[in-house]
């Protein structure tokens, strides 16, 4: 039985013990922070340098982030010469600068996290083709992925296999043969013959351009938003059977969600996370829209190739609708698209993280090291493609992709290995049909208002749009 004596105060709490526990907890958290932002980076840096790797030294606390931002802002502040295709210094200025200074394998720091920039095609193939679990997507980007939809690229292991099988079904060859008609109908008003739902006014690209052109030239049409709308329509109808106009609100919400995520990335700098977060957002816009946009820009710069591609299209199809059988005979068009994908890859870089202690190229890497694979730098490497690497030469693909480069293969516009882009065949098919239809109906050239400024936003996009003058044939 408890006896309460009125007027007596309860026993005083052991404040000294609480203070001691609080002090120990503070010391423990301080040690963890010191270990993460100082001791571990210095230890990792010494271990990698001891194995012969070059690169930058760790700078507390943000690593190379300040230099990364400085180079990016400087690159975006001015446009490129009009007919220049040497886009790497503008699109990925930091990665390009590091590779020029330190060679094909270089260590950099984003915050306290080591990032190895890698441009050796053989090592890149080894990473992307890995099936044993040493290399995977960055786990540190989960916070940004939760803001977006968890798509195929967000999954690993068994979950990825299940989702890959589901997505593969949508892009099966039989589906694509049907969707080749869908892509054609989305460009012309012949859509009613195949799919009544394809008669939406937003899908009639060629008709809309015809109406805009009238009897003469259009001063300018910004083809970038035009192709964004077109490819969104085609993919939603061909793969999922839905209408872009009916689902416009969903697309708008997704776009707003991605934009808000980008804003948060820039507003909330977490050392070592920002660049990787941009990598997660890299696939939000359709690669086909990017490919068609840069193809029209490049063919406007090189009218001789525009004429050759048009002659081939008219020889194969005349003025008839392109079909899946005839598309296979467009050799010059295919070469043009491959060369544009080399010079202007929609996805500028791919990143992987070591999940366990891994050996690559004679160097041992601990878990938690990020590899950045700058596709655009590899596609513009003179040691791989020759001294004419920055020239537009579709004939380099005359014998196929495997013989186009000195190092076969070194062409990674859709990635490589088991996680290569599931929609690559669909994207190329859609691009061939779209380009063929445009060549059938229009001559085109750059508008005087066009400014050549490729930049990395989510994909490789024209910073100031892509203004093109059209003339009906």
TrEMBL record:
Signal peptide: none
Gene3D superfamilies: Cytochrome P450
InterPro entries attached to this UniProt entry: Cyt_P450, Cyt_P450_CS, Cyt_P450_E_grp-I, Cyt_P450_sf, Cytochrome_P450_Monooxygen
GO molecular function annotation: heme binding; iron ion binding; monooxygenase activity; oxidoreductase activity, acting on paired donors, with incorporation or reduction of molecular oxygen
Principal cellular location given in the protein's record: membrane
Chain residues that bind heme: 421
A Gene Ontology term for the protein's cellular component: membrane
UniProt entry keywords in alphabetical sequence: Heme, Iron, Membrane, Metal-binding, Monooxygenase, Oxidoreductase, Transmembrane, Transmembrane helix
Annotated localization: Membrane
Cofactor requirements of the protein: heme
Entry superkingdom: Eukaryota
Any one of the GO BP annotations: lipid metabolic process
SUPFAM superfamilies in alphabetical order: Cytochrome P450 (SSF48264)
Annotated Pfam families: p450
Family to which this protein belongs: Belongs to the cytochrome P450 family.
Protein name per its UniProtKB record: Uncharacterized protein
Lineage, broadest ranks: Eukaryota, Viridiplantae, Streptophyta, Embryophyta, Tracheophyta
Gene: gb05463
């Amino acid at each position: 039985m408890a006896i309460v004596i009125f007027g007596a105060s309860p026993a005083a709490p052991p404040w000294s013990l609480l203070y001691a526990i609080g002090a120990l907890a503070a010391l423990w958290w301080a040690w963890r922070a010191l270990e993460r932002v100082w001791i571990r980076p210095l230890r990792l840096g010494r271990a990698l340098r001891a194995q012969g790797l070059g690169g930058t030294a760790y700078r507390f606390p943000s690593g190379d982030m300040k230099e990364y931002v400085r180079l990016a802002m400087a690159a975006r502040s001015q446009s490129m010469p009009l007919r220049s295709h040497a886009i790497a210094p503008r699109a990925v200025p930091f990665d390009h600068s590091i590779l020029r200074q330190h060679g094909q394998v270089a260590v950099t720091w984003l915050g306290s996290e080591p990032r190895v920039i890698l441009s050796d095609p053989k090592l890149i193939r080894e990473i992307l083709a890995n099936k044993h679990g040493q290399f995977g997507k960055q786990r540190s980007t989960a916070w940004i992925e939760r803001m977006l939809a968890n798509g195929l690229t967000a999954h690993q292991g068994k979950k990825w296999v299940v989702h890959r099988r589901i997505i593969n079904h949508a892009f099966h060859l039989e589906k694509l043969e049907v969707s080749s008609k869908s892509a054609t109908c989305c460009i012309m008003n012949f859509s009613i013959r195949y799919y009544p739902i394809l008669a939406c006014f937003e899908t009639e690209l060629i008709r809309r351009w015809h109406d805009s052109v009238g009897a003469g030239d259009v001063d300018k049409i910004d083809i970038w938003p035009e192709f964004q709308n077109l490819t969104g329509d085609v993919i939603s109808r061909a793969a999922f059977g839905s209408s872009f106009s009916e689902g416009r609100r969903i697309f708008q919400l997704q776009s707003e969600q991605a934009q808000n995520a980008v804003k948060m990335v820039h507003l909330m700098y977490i050392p070592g996370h920002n660049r990787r977060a941009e990598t997660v957002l890299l696939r939000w816009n359709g690669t086909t829209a990017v490919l068609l946009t840069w193809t029209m820009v490049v063919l406007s710069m090189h009218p001789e190739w525009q004429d050759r591609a048009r002659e081939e299209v008219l020889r194969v199809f005349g003025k008839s609708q392109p079909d899946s059988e005839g598309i296979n005979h467009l050799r010059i068009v295919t070469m043009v698209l491959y060369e544009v994908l080399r010079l202007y890859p929609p996805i500028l870089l791919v990143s992987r993280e070591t999940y366990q202690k891994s050996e690559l190229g004679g160097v041992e890497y601990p878990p938690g090291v990020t590899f950045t694979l700058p596709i655009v730098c590899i596609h513009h490497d003179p040691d791989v493609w020759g001294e004419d690497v920055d020239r537009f030469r579709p004939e380099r693909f005359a014998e196929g992709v495997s013989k186009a480069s000195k190092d076969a293969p070194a062409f990674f516009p859709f990635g490589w290995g088991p996680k290569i882009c599931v929609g690559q065949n669909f994207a190329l098919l859609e691009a061939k049909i779209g380009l063929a239809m445009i060549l059938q109906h229009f001559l085109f050239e750059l508008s005087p208002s066009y400014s050549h400024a490729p930049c990395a936003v989510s994909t490789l996009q024209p910073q100031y749009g892509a203004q093109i003058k059209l003339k009906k044939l």
